[in-house]
Amino acid sequence: MDQADHETRILDAAERLFYARGIQAVGMDELRTAAGVSLKRLYQSFPSKDELVAAYLDRRDERWLSSLRTFVGDGGVIELFAWLVQWFSTEDFRGCAFLNAFGELGGRVSPPVLRHKDRLHALLRELAVREGAPDPDLRADQLLILVDGATVTAMLGRTNAAGAALRLALADVRG
Amino acid sequence: MDQADHETRILDAAERLFYARGIQAVGMDELRTAAGVSLKRLYQSFPSKDELVAAYLDRRDERWLSSLRTFVGDGGVIELFAWLVQWFSTEDFRGCAFLNAFGELGGRVSPPVLRHKDRLHALLRELAVREGAPDPDLRADQLLILVDGATVTAMLGRTNAAGAALRLALADVRG
DNA sequence: TAGCCTAGAGAACGAACGTTCTCCAAGGCA
DNA sequence: TGCCTTGGAGAACGTTCGTTCTCTAGGCTA
């Protein structure tokens, strides 16, 4: 097992634990145990917890956006919110990892969080252009509001959040 | 200065510090200093940090909703989002205290957070009824998505969040 | 005035946690 | 076989933090 394998196992454990229970609630020792890696190797791969957190967020950003992009393909808001419905109903769903991390750590995690939201905004803008929206930037802003709003609302237990948001997205196209 | 005054000063300091920097980032000792109160009295008023956090959230809930309710009065979504615009532009704005607390502490703060969102939902439902919405529950769900979505989006620096959300709210009425 | 109660200041305690260090076993190489 | 390097397990260290304890000063009552 080489260095890359170790990093993958560490990041897998980090994503599972950090997302499920919060970053500050998970210690390096518990993470080490979950990853099945020695503390020495953990610190060789990621010299501090802050760097591990940044790596966790960046990898989650890539995977999350890639999954969404693949699912939506050339589709529109229907596919966008269908993907959200499926995400919200996964067993370990606990809201947006980036918003949670921001609430928890504030400025210390800002760069990965802002990067993530900018990339999501760019994806939504592409969708807006395909839709023929007259003002794609505004439309992307609005879709971002709907996606984030539905996500935090679903996190707190309102199960029809994605459906309600979809109706707003469709209404705006007609309006 | 009696007991109630002390509690007020403690809660004032707690709200300022917890909201600005996060709950876990503020220790009881710093809070004691900011409130100008002895540690003994602090623990007489609030026997543990968890109880102080709950009291902070509950008092913020009351004040926040009361301010919104007063501003909106018998108005509709225009007034609702006008209030948000003003809130977002306050200097110390840092998103929704309840969503941030949830991201930070997860289940440990769930009851006050859920209470707050339920009360906000109820206020939005009243507004939906006044508007003559055909399905006030759905409309309240949607307004909650727009309010929370605009709030987290504004927190991350998109300054026109409230305006973009308002347009969606108006579009749905027309659609 | 003498004794007692209160309250404040901050030292102290115990736990948790990020990070580093020590010890030892195992394996490659002369 | 004997030596040297590598890596794992976990002890140890220093700090932070929530919470409690101690000591002392001041004011009220008899």
UniProtKB/TrEMBL annotation, chains A, B:
The keyword Metal-binding does not apply. Coiled coil: none annotated. Keywords: DNA-binding. It holds the Pfam family TetR_N. It comes from the Bacteria. Residues 27-46 bind DNA. Residues 4-64 form the HTH tetR-type domain. PROSITE patterns: HTH_TETR_2 (PS50977). This is Helix-turn-helix domain-containing protein. It comes from Actinocorallia libanotica.
